[in-house]
Specification:
Blueprint: E1 2-6, H1 14-27, E2 37-40, H2 43-52, H3 64-78, H4 83-88, H5 101-111, E3 122-129, E4 134-139, H6 140-145, H7 153-160, E5 170-173, E6 180-185, H8 194-203, E7 212-216, E8 231-236, E9 242-247
Parallel strand pairs: 1-2, 1-7, 2-3, 7-9
Antiparallel strand pairs: 3-4, 3-6, 5-6, 8-9
Helix pairs in contact: 1-3, 2-7, 3-5, 5-7
């Protein structure tokens, strides 16, 4: 079993998307065909949904490079703030910094009417219920077995991207119409979804099948020094068989 985990990080989701695009170029295969589970938080959750959305032929619709292009093309519209928004939000102090029109439009355009249960490879995406105050996980494996846990991918992407102070919380309703959940970004407890994904694999009794867990970060800013302004390559984390990748600004 091979697991891919992608961190949250807003527009910096472009970074792991480009790393994944390079992997696809070298292997000649789509990421969803190389792994058994894609886990993501926030922007990483959107990447997970995009990588696993099925096309008309049943294969992944988008390449990682096409997802990277989405960040370049849609990013300025998603993170656009009008003068009125800047004034009435007081720079994000009393209201969310951004309207969600651009985000909603991009999600609708690229995720369409696909559902969580349609994912070509298992998906695990984090969110948080602000009413019940519990961690909420979108799981495609559970969605295929029970419509009460199935959701449109558009709603999955919108929920996991609802970062407090950036975008408004959102309400999602399962396709069976049994319950509505008020959700925000899972980054409030798991910017890196690796341990959550591992716990899910363990709960399913599949730890013995785990061959590889690849965790991709979205980079961080550090004080410039002679040695810190360089890219850090992949690192092997011992017997846990977990590869991590990050970079410095």
């Amino acid at each position: 079993m091979k697991v891919l985990c992608v961190d949250g990080g807003g527009i910096r989701g472009l970074i792991p998307a480009l790393v994944l695009a390079e992997i696809e170029q070298r292997t000649g295969r789509r990421i969803a065909e190389l792994v058994d589970l894609v886990a993501g938080t926030s922007t990483g959750g959107i990447v997970a949904c995009g990588l696993t959305r099925p096309g008309p032929d049943g294969r992944p619709l988008y390449s990682a490079q096409e997802l990277a292009d989405i960040y370049v093309e849609e990013g300025p519209r998603i993170f656009h703030r009008s003068l009125l928004k800047r004034i009435f939000s007081v720079g994000g102090w009393i209201d969310e910094r951004y309207e969600d029109d651009g985000l909603n439009s991009a999600l609708a355009r690229y995720l369409g009417d696909a559902k969580l249960s349609d994912a070509v490879t298992d998906v695990f995406v984090t969110a948080y219920d602000i009413s019940g105050r519990f961690a909420f996980f979108f799981r495609s494996a559970r969605a295929r077995d029970d419509p009460a846990y199935d959701f449109p991918l558009v709603q999955v992407g919108r929920a996991t991207a609802a970062a407090p102070s950036y975008f408004e919380p959102t309400e999602v309703t399962d396709v069976a119409g049994t319950r509505t959940y008020p959700l925000i970004d899972g980054g409030v407890y798991a910017v890196n979804p690796s341990m959550c994904a591992f716990a899910d694999v363990a709960a399913a009794g599949r730890v013995g099948e785990l061959e590889l867990m690849l965790s991709l970060g979205t980079a961080s800013t550090r004080a410039p020094t002679r040695t810190s302004r360089r890219a850090r390559g992949a690192s092997w984390n011992g017997p846990a068989r977990c590869w991590t990748w990050s970079s410095t600004a």
